[in-house]
Specification:
Strand order of the largest sheet: 9-7-5-2-10-1-11-15-19-20
Structural class: alpha/beta
Number of helices: 11
Bound molecules: inosinic acid
Largest sheet: 10 strands, mixed
Oligomer: single chain
Strand content: 15-25%
Length: about 425
């Protein structure tokens, strides 16, 4: 059967630092493949002293000799994609050499963005806090069997197909009392599509099958995080795709028995951007401190992220639904020098204690917090300070998988690889 594919994904509410880990491990892989989400994602990489944010393009793009694939499960906004391509070109990265795009990936139209905004406005105070990139409406058209795919753009009647779908959207927008997208948006979109279809378009399921048969090492790169999964996240405050490891199968066309490692990325604390339940949220000076030290502001929208303590029942749940085999803990440096640290070990739901993630984490859910020792600063003779090692041991014991990578800062160099400890 050849080689097997590894999966790397977020184990919390997104923004865990997946971009950095993919960049660090990229030399171990021949192909890096995005399998879901779209430009709602913002994967930040610090490279040669400069910050780069990728929205649609996989995080292996800065490594020579790595093939980057945008899979069928991804939704692409051609206008945002073109901006990303041009920004990379400006720093000397020509994506034409190393980027492949699945013909089955669906396209985000300007009217999808308009519908996203209309739907959020209609929800009022119960809005999702969407990034307003048109993600929900595009996946709705996909499952409703109305969508436009990248492969459709190779057909001579692509403009007619675009107009037919746009007309349908305009009728919906009228119901919302919203104007249609301006004419210039259409021109910009069609011009960007011309660039998109000049790229290397592939049937990703065949491409990956062949690559794996030839012994190539493939990494599937997730976007957002487990708790934003359409099925297992904190519905309805979620994104519209399967962010869990199963999404790598459907989003790339790779069978489940070809998956090997599943690497879960989490931060030493929790953050969430947008609305929805967040049991360990700190709406106080401690939360503010974590936000400022961790620079917790959205890379796609600039919004301040909500911050809170690490939530072990939620992390355990992520390990379970993804089959995570090892964990990478990010931003450990942000908790350095804090007098008081806490970890959530369970919840109280209607006064009853549980260590399970409940069906509905609403305001009835109260976190059970355990105080733990901090670790001063990170300067130490050992790779990691003892307090930080104890913090990690507590996590490993609870969730049953090893933390094999610890990130101590944004740069590639600020990364410690740990031996997989024997945990059960
Ligand atoms: P949408 O996917 O843009 O519709 O957003 C739905 C929810 O997921 C909102 O709460 C967003 O803030 C959140 N979200 C979407 N993409 C990301 C991401 O890449 N990181 C963190 N949160 C995200």
């Amino acid at each position: 059967m050849g080689a097997r594919m590894d999966v790397l994904l977020g184990a919390q509410w997104g923004d865990e630092g997946k971009g950095k880990v993919v960049d660090v491990v990229a030399p171990d892989y021949d192909v890096i493949a995005r399998f879901q989400g779209g430009p709602n994602a913002g994967h930040t990489l610090l490279f040669e002293g400069r910050k780069h944010v990728l929205h649609t393009i996989p995080s292996g793009i800065f490594r020579e000799d790595t093939v980057n694939l945008i899979g069928n499960g991804v939704v692409i906004d051609p206008v945002i994609f073109l901006k990303e391509v041009n920004a990379l070109k400006a720093i000397g990265v020509d994506v034409r050499n190393s980027l492949l795009i699945s013909r089955r990936a669906h396209l985000i139209l300007p009217t999808h963005r308009a519908l996203d905004a209309a739907s959020e406005a209609e929800k009022g105070t119960s809005k999702i806090g969407s990034t307003l990139k048109g993600i929900g409406p595009t996946y709705m058209d996909k499952t409703g069997r109305n969508g436009l795919r990248v492969g459709d753009m190779e057909l001579h009647d692509r403009s007619e197909r675009y107009r037919a779908l746009t007309k349908k959207h305009e009728r919906l927008l009228l119901q919302y009392g919203r104007p249609a997208a301006p004419k210039e948006a259409e021109e910009e979109w069609l011009a960007a599509v011309d660039v998109l279809r000049s790229m290397r378009l592939v049937d990703s399921e065949h491409y990956l099958d062949q690559a794996l048969r030839n012994g190539k090492r493939v990494l599937a790169e997730g976007a957002q995080g487990t708790l934003l999964d359409i099925d297992f996240g904190t519905y309805p405050f979620v994104t519209s795709s399967n962010t869990i490891s199963a999404g790598a199968c459907t989003g790339l066309g790779v069978a489940p028995n070809r998956i090997d490692k599943v690497v879960g990325i989490f931060k030493a604390y929790c953050t969430r951007v947008g609305s929805g339940p967040f049991p360990t949220e700190l709406e106080n000076a401690t939360g503010e401190h974590i936000r400022n030290v961790g620079q917790e502001f959205g890379s796609t929208t600039g919004r301040a992220r909500r911050c809170g303590w690490l939530d072990l029942p939620a992390l355990h749940y992520a390990v379970m639904v993804n089959g995570i085999t090892e964990l990478a803990m990010m931003k450990s440096d942000v908790l350095s020098n804090m007098d008081e640290l806490r970890i959530c070990t369970g919840y109280k739901v209607d006064g009853k204690a549980t260590d399970r993630m409940p069906y509905d984490i609403t305001s009835r859910v109260e976190p059970i917090l355990q105080q733990v020792d901090g670790w001063g600063d990170l300067s130490t003779d050992t790779p990691l300070p003892h307090g930080l090692e104890r913090y990690i041991a507590m996590i490993e014991e609870r969730v049953g998988v090893p933390v094999t990578l610890v990130s101590l800062g944004p740069d590639r160099a600020e990364t410690v690889h740990r031996q997989a400890a024997a945990v059960h």
